[in-house]
Amino acid sequence: TFSEFNRVAGLEYRLATPENRWSGKVFYHRSFSPVQEDHAFTHGLQLEYLKKKYRLEWAHVGVGNGYNAETGFVPRKDYWLWSPELQLFFYPKSGPVNIHDINIDSRFFWQIGKDENPYISDYQMSEWQVEAQWSFQFKDNSRATITATQSYLTLLSDFDPTRVQDDDVFLPAGSSYSYLNGGVNYSSNPLKNFVYEVEPIFGQFGNGLIA
């Protein structure tokens, strides 16, 4: 069955200063339906400050449990996400590397607590992830990246990581996992006739290993 109507109204502001020193956007949306629920909103902010030697970014988004956008795609509700990021740029004066940078990106999820799940208290952190990445751009136009990611999460429902859909193969709701994984990526010069890319990945996922 469908609602008699579903409407979403909102405001959005985009920022871009000369030379892209500051850029970003902020928004607030609210949904309206015949049966109006509490927390029928989503809002967020993304703000970036860019200099030659570094980049700073702050982003957050919140989606209420009652937010309903029937013509859109809302994969997750009832959370706050905070995501600070720092990137440093280096310009070697000699050698094979044209530019390299170190990027540290983080994501922290708080459960607002209106979805009545029994595993997370109101405004308790349900998961986080910190990713460190070292990227290289070589003078021959090839690129390389080294990545390490530390993750933590609490499952709010049973999860089958194997996708085999057997009743007894799942990680139970309410269980928590902390795991580390990493990877290396190398892509050759895209201007050549023969182009290739390699990306080995290794580490953990849930209570298992990946390679």
Topology:
Elements: E1 7-16, E2 22-32, E3 41-50, E4 54-63, E5 79-90, E6 97-111, E7 124-138, E8 143-154, E9 176-187, E10 197-198, E11 201-205, E12 208-210
Antiparallel strand pairs: 1-2, 2-3, 3-4, 4-5, 5-6, 6-7, 7-8, 8-9, 9-10, 9-11, 11-12
Task: Characterise the protein shown here.
By secondary structure, the protein is mainly β. It is 0% helix and 55% strand. The chain has no helices and twelve strands. Strands 1, 2, 3, 4, 5, 6, 7, 8, 9, 10, 11 and 12 form a twelve-stranded antiparallel beta sheet that branches. A hairpin with a 3-residue loop joins β3 and β4 (54-63). The radius of gyration is 21 Å and the shape is globular. It starts with 6 loop residues before the first strand and ends with a strand.
Order of helices and strands: EEEEEEEEEEEE
Percent in strands: over 45%
Radius of gyration: 21 Å
Number of strands: 12
The major sheet is characterized as: 12 strands, antiparallel
Which features would summarize this protein structure in a list?
55% strand, 211 residues, mainly beta, 12-stranded antiparallel β-sheet, globular
